[in-house]
Amino acid sequence: VKKLSDLGERKAIKIIESIISQGEIPVGIGDDCAALELNDDYLLVTTDMIAEKTHISNSMKPWQIGWYIVAINLSDIAAKGGKPLGLVLSLGLPSKTSESFLKDLIKGADDCASFYNTFIVGGDTKENSEITLCGTAFGVVEKSCFMSRMGAKHGDVVAVTGSLGKAAAGYLSLENDMDDEHILKNLFEPKPRIFEGVALSKEKIVSSCMDISDGLSSSLYQIKNLNKIGFKIYKGKIPLSQNLKEISEKIKDINVDDYFLHFGGDYELLITLSKQNFINAQICLETIGCNLTEIGRVTKDSSITIIEGDVKEVLPNKGYEHFKNNNVL
Amino acid sequence: VKKLSDLGERKAIKIIESIISQGEIPVGIGDDCAALELNDDYLLVTTDMIAEKTHISNSMKPWQIGWYIVAINLSDIAAKGGKPLGLVLSLGLPSKTSESFLKDLIKGADDCASFYNTFIVGGDTKENSEITLCGTAFGVVEKSCFMSRMGAKHGDVVAVTGSLGKAAAGYLSLENDMDDEHILKNLFEPKPRIFEGVALSKEKIVSSCMDISDGLSSSLYQIKNLNKIGFKIYKGKIPLSQNLKEISEKIKDINVDDYFLHFGGDYELLITLSKQNFINAQICLETIGCNLTEIGRVTKDSSITIIEGDVKEVLPNKGYEHFKNNNVL
Q1: What pLDDT digit, counting tens, does each position of B86-96 carry?
Q2: What Cα–Cα distance (Å) separates residue A297 from each residue in A216, A229, A294, A313?
Q3: Distance CA A326, CA A184 (A)
Q4: Of A46, A49, A70, A32, nearest to A201 (Cα)?
Q5: Distances (CA, A) of A152 to A137, A148, A318, B238
Q6: Is A49 in Cβ contact with B90 (below 8 Å)?
Q7: What stretches of B204-321 show up as alpha helix (H) in DSSP?
Q8: Rounded (10°) angle between helices A166-175 and A181-188
Q9: Which residues are registered as beta bridge partners of A157?
């Protein structure tokens, strides 16, 4: 008998996809959110579950756990250009959970929702043998503004918001007992690009978009496979987190590439768009304080090449599943 | 330090309510669904989580578990008169879970969604130490058709759809090793009143509505507390499930009242409406094959009296939390 541990998550999802009835929805499984038609808008819906043993570090404060479950759900809304309408939050908690843990968790969740001008509108509270949180976020975007994972075209610029490796820096500081609250915040208190997603979507200039929650290489491979295109990525252009630079200099025998190319948890946006539109997108995001950096180009041939000086290599799809395979958190 | 086991679920929910920011939403915590404004409609959202140790009987087939998580979420949409738009389903599963369990579970969930002309539009799959399922359903209802828990008025008829005690009959058959697949179906494969909810809401004749998932007494107390009214309930008028009647005759020393008054799991609708409207509601539901039975009246004084012949008693609020306190499933 085959077990999930033999199948792996990706195979399990394929099985689920093959069973469920395909509704007449324009965007379903395979994108960051499901999108349902609501007149001229799409209703965006996304859900994420995390559990104590596999996803929640002992070093996380209860407030941060609450922030985190809301933030990772909002990031999927951000990646589609959605304005959040609200969230529901289900809590599976052991009966030994303390009142103060519950209070801090809810405060963190509420603070994250409030930060993005949205609300927790409902939920469920049930007993569970481990802390298990399930958030569902919903949002709305004009159909013509929706940023799909589909649409990357040969010649397009590939760009990322902010910097990569921030969450990895937090992980490294934790692993090497260099606990620095400021650096850890990048890992435990991600800031989804809601305002940036909304601003970009209004410009209608993006050809494809997704969040980089699982790491840059994993995201690039997903866009590549959906669009039957490839990428050339200039390693030197990737905006490296200053924290990752500093921390990697203090640690022996570390391959920093593994962290900014493959490690997840940054919740930045990966976008493709034409060269002309890239400048407009940069200006648009600059006005709200966010950098947008070109890291390469979409190619016709379906491989992903990483270029550093004269060296061209195929980018491995390490597909880190953040908070899972690496057993960090 | 206070723990959740000291607080109980109701106190925990009060604490959560006191912390989260109140958005400008018309209906939030305290009703079956959250309702958010979408032009002339409300977007309805509800979420329910179940876990292996506390909510899922060993006697349930995987297909039934899938049906169940979808059905209980749709029941909340039904109680507000909503047309389902879709569901997302998060699965927390142990790594030892078999492929066939996953397939059957998803098939059950999909079959339930299809039965109600809706779809599973997305989800998440994560490792968990016990089977933990979290469903979120969303639906839509015209604002003017929304059936709130608020609005029961002195003099209104109190009525229920279908019959009560069906799920209890399944529970009793299980407890007494009289396993009858047909009777167990009522417990494990609830049929939310989606079509009935939509039909009733279109008539705009209901003054308040909720589903009876936690049992009749618990539901009556919730409507009473929200509306500052009371009820007189005629015990002889309560439509008893034929299965419960039959099974209770076979079991010694059973207080059948406990089962049709307090046991949950039937997922029928409890409604209040004026006497004139009651007849219209009956006709409306009859055309889609559903009985609607008057069981009593809304009273001015805020107590709930149960009447049988000359005997009047205060109805106890046993508030069974189905699949929890009674540790059945």
Answers
A1: 999 999 999 99
A2: 14, 10, 8, 15
A3: 17
A4: A32
A5: 26, 9, 22, 62
A6: yes
A7: 216-227, 242-250, 256-257, 275-286
A8: 120
A9: A273, A297
Enter the ipTM.
Answer: 0.90
Contacts of B62 (CB under 8 A, 6+ apart): B100, B101, B102, B104, B105, B108
Distance of CA A69 to the CA centre of its chain: 12
Say which amino acid occupies A153.
K
* DSSP letter, residue A147: -
Instruction: Say how far apart CA A20 and CA A28 lie, in whole Å.
Output: 11
The answer to whether residue A123 neighbours chain B at the CB level (below 8 Å) is: yes
Q: What is the distance, to the nearest Å, from the Cα of residue A254 to the centroid of all Cα atoms in its chain?
A: 24
* Residues B265, B168 contacting (CB under 8 angstroms): yes
Structure tokens of B270?
């409890």
- B293–chain A Cβ distance below 8 A for any pair: no
CA-CA distance, A181 to B44, in Å (whole number)?
39
The predicted-structure confidence for B24-64, as pLDDT tens digits, reads as follows 666 766 788 999 988 899 999 999 999 999 889 999 999 99
Fill in the amino acid letter for A62. Answer: P
Buried b (16+ CB within 10 A) or exposed e, A93-116: beeebbbebbbbbbbbbbbbbeeb
What residues of chain A lie within 8 A of the CB of B94, using their CB?
4
For chain B, what is the largest distance between any 2 Cα atoms, rounded to a whole number of angstroms?
59
At residue B319 the predicted structure's pLDDT band, cuts being 50, 70 and 90, is: low
Query: pTM for this one?
Result: 0.93
Q: Which residues contact B276 (CB under 8 A, 6 or more apart)?
A: none
Chain B closest-CA separation from residue A140 CA (Å): 10
Which tens digit of pLDDT belongs to each residue from A72-100? 999 999 999 999 999 999 999 999 999 99
| Distance between CA atoms of residues B313 and B63, nearest Å | 42
- Between CA A271 and CA A273, with CA A272 as vertex, the angle to 5 degrees is 125
Strand order in the sheet with B120-127: B34-38, B41-51, B132-142, B83-93, B120-127
Quick one: which H or E segment has residue A123? strand A120-127
- Asked if A124's CB is within 8 angstroms of B128's CB, the reply is no
CA distances from B151 to B26, B209, B218, B266, B268 (A): 14, 9, 18, 23, 19
